[in-house]
Amino acid sequence: MAYTGYATPIKISICILLLSLLLNFASAGRVLSKTGQGQEQDPMVFKYHNGPLLTGKISINLIWYGRFNPSQKAIVTDFITSLSSPSLSSQVQPSVATWWKNIEKYYTKIKSKKSSSLHLFLGNQNLDENYSLGKSLKMQQIEQLAAKGDQMNAINVVLTSSDVVVDGFCSSKCGTHSSLRSRAAIKGKYPRFAYIWVGNSETQCPGQCAWPFHQPVYGPQSPPLIAPNNDVGVDGMIINLASLLAGAVTNPFGNGYFQGPAVAPLEAAAACPGIYGKGAYPGYAGDLLVDATTGASYNAHGSNGRKYLLPALYDPSTSTCSTLV
After folding, report:
1. 22-36, 172-186, 224-238, 309-323: which has the minimum mean pLDDT?
2. Are 267 and 18 in contact (CB under 8 A)?
3. What pLDDT shows up at residue 94?
4. Where residue 38 falls among pLDDT bands split at 50, 70, 90?
5. In whole numbers, what is the pLDDT of the chain averaged over residues?
6. Do 214 and 207 touch, CB atoms closer than 8 A?
7. Omega of the bond prior to 94 within 30 degrees of 0, cis?
8. What would the pLDDT profile of 219-229 be if each residue is shown by its tens digit?
9. Are the beta carbons of 82 and 97 closer than 8 angstroms?
10. Read out DSSP for 204-258?
11. Which of 74, 102, 297, 314 has the greatest number of CB atoms lying within 10 Å of its CB?
12. Strands 300-301 and 297-298
């Protein structure tokens, strides 16, 4: 059963800005905490803050705002269905499901009754192709859209098309996650549900929100990688969506797992910026797999023969950033 607490909502954003990457990379790529005699604890230690995580069966409901073609929708829905495969052994490895299985470490590390299992599945989809709120949105309107999805045991994901301008998009964030209070009461109380927003940066800021599939705006300049699904904007959205999903389940209400201050936390994936494979360094995503036919770079196999590039996840059991390849 999903948590139904009443924590103060905190918007947590992700932005693949190379300037931020350069500033944070050194701390993210090493052990983030040290303990022992004669050693000081790292002030930026990644830790659990005693709040609830999302548990049980959680539907991921998609709210498509603007124009997405069928191919773009399929890239996203195949990614969602790839997260919880019935059998990891039957998949080509490394897989999206194997990447997501690392999230279990956040649950097993909690030695209390708060710890439980989590299963994500693709829920309902809402189409808003006529831009009912216009093509320039404030975060309040993103919340309006998020409220259109189911509000019990759910994460509602708002996806805005490349021609939709969202307040703060590109300048400070590529997406965000937070929580909203449900409209339906349960035993006289109105529980919160998690939501995510991710924008398509293809025409607005691919060098910021779709790196490494586009030349970066800041930092070391290296040739962009070929996107695994041949769509720079949506393949970039997958990176951001994956990172925000990891944050949404392990820090849904601002008091779960994170590093740094609660107002600007680094979460499960955001604590490992710019790392996709072993050997990564600023401006270089790491040693990745390459499709022999298309030349596209990836690190995970998904449903329907898909390939994806997914961010490294912080491993709470080893205090390091873990990659699939």
Report:
1. 22-36
2. no
3. 96
4. very low
5. 86
6. yes
7. yes
8. 777 899 999 99
9. yes
10. T-HHHHSTTSS--SSSS--PPPPPTTS-HHHHHHHHHHHHHHHHHHHSTTSSSEE
11. 314
12. unpaired
Phi, psi dihedral angles at 256 (to 5 degrees): -100, -125
Q: What is the Rg, in whole angstroms, of the alpha carbon atoms belonging to the chain?
A: 19
63 closest CA partner among 121, 123, 122, 128: 128
Give Cα separations from 214 to 117, 255, 271 (angstroms).
37, 34, 22
3-class secondary-structure state, position 83: helix
DSSP category for residue 7 = P
Q: Give a three-class secondary structure readout of 130-161.
A: CCCCCCEECHHHHHHHHCCCCCCCEEEEEEEC
Token duo for residue 298: 């990836």
Residue 35: how many CB atoms within 10 A of its CB? 10
Q: How far apart are CA 73 and CA 252, in angstroms?
A: 25
What is the enclosing helix (H) or strand (E) of 46?
A: strand 46-48
DSSP assignment of 3-34 equals ----PPP--EEE---HHHHHHHHHHHTS----
Query: Rounded to whole angstroms, what are the CA distances from 67 to 47, 149, 161, 306, 312?
Result: 40, 18, 6, 22, 30
Q: What is the DSSP letter of 80?
A: H
Q: Is the dihedral of CA 228, 231, 232, 235 positive or negative?
A: negative
Contact between 191 and 4 under an 8 Å Cβ cutoff? The reply is yes
pTM: 0.89
- Three-state DSSP class for 291? coil
Mean pLDDT of 187-203: 89
Closest CA to 197 of 152, 241, 247: 241
What is the DSSP code (8-state) at residue 93?
A: S
d(CA 219, CA 211): 12
State the sign of the Cα–Cα–Cα–Cα dihedral 313, 314, 318, 320.
Answer: positive
d(CA 278, CA 272): 12
